[in-house]
Amino acid sequence: MTTKFDELLEKFHAYLASVDDALVRDAVARTGWDMPARKLEPHALGCLRHLDRGAGLAPPDARPLVRLLAEQRNELHWGQTYTEADFGRAFIDNYGWLEIFGTRGHFVNEEAAAGLLILGPGIVYPDHHHVAEEIYIPLTGGTEWRMGESGFRRREAGEVVHHASNVNHAMRTGKEPLLALYIWRGGPLAQKSTITGTATQVRG
Ligand SMILES: [Fe+2]
């Protein structure tokens, strides 16, 4: 079955296949890219107002993908795992993800989940962990990331960030929004994270 999102999956695959990193290569190789489509209703979120700025900041090799995401934003099903009770209103207004494939995404995959995360500027995503291991590829620079007990470290666009299973990690954005591709594998793919930090904990 062809759908209007086939091109999105193709461009997502093409970008991931261009990333020079052993973990990403392994994830791309293990993925069966001929996935059945899943019918999802469009669902928009407030964080989409950061998509154009983020797309403008993305490196040239990611632009075909982010331009298509921007074009199709209103037809896609954007989601949130957290609620206002978890991290507050500002976070919820500036956070969301698109699952391109996975157990609940636009394409069906029971082995791994992958898509795009959006975080607005000046947002703290506090310490949390989950069973699945997580690979992030930021498409915009300037966000600080940390895992375990390490300090925050600024990562640039295209740098691969790996969060091992069940290890705490956190992010905080700077003056610009974060767009990041993610891959989840090796654990429950729609599980809500265990939160150990608070929205005010990690500033400063
Ligand atoms: Fe995570």
* Count of separate DSSP helical elements: 6
Which ranges are low-confidence, i.e. pLDDT below 50, for 5 or more consecutive residues?
none
Strand content: 25-35%
| Helix-and-strand structural type | alpha+beta
**Helix content range:** 10-25%
Explain this structure to me?
- With 204 residues, this protein is α+β, with helices and mostly antiparallel strands.
- Helices cover 23% and strands 28% of the residues.
- Strands 1, 2, 3, 4, 6, 9 and 11 form a 7-stranded mixed beta sheet that branches. Strands 8-7-10-5-12 form a 5-stranded antiparallel beta sheet, with no helix packed on it.
- A hairpin with a 5-residue loop joins strand 7 and strand 8 (153-155).
- Helix 1 (6-17) packs antiparallel against helix 4 (63-71).
- The protein is globular.
- The structure holds fe (ii) ion.
Short description:
The longest helix has 12 residues, at 6-17.
Set out the fold topology.
Layout: H1 6-17, H2 22-30, H3 51-57, H4 63-71, E1 78-79, H5 84-87, H6 89-93, E2 95-102, E3 107-108, E4 112-119, E5 124-129, E6 133-138, E7 143-147, E8 153-155, E9 161-163, E10 169-172, E11 178-185, E12 194-195
Parallel strand pairs: 2-3
Antiparallel strand pairs: 1-2, 2-4, 4-11, 5-10, 5-12, 6-9, 6-11, 7-8, 7-10
Helix pairs in contact: 1-4, 3-4
Task: List its traits.
single chain; alpha+beta; seven-stranded mixed beta sheet; globular; binds fe (ii) ion
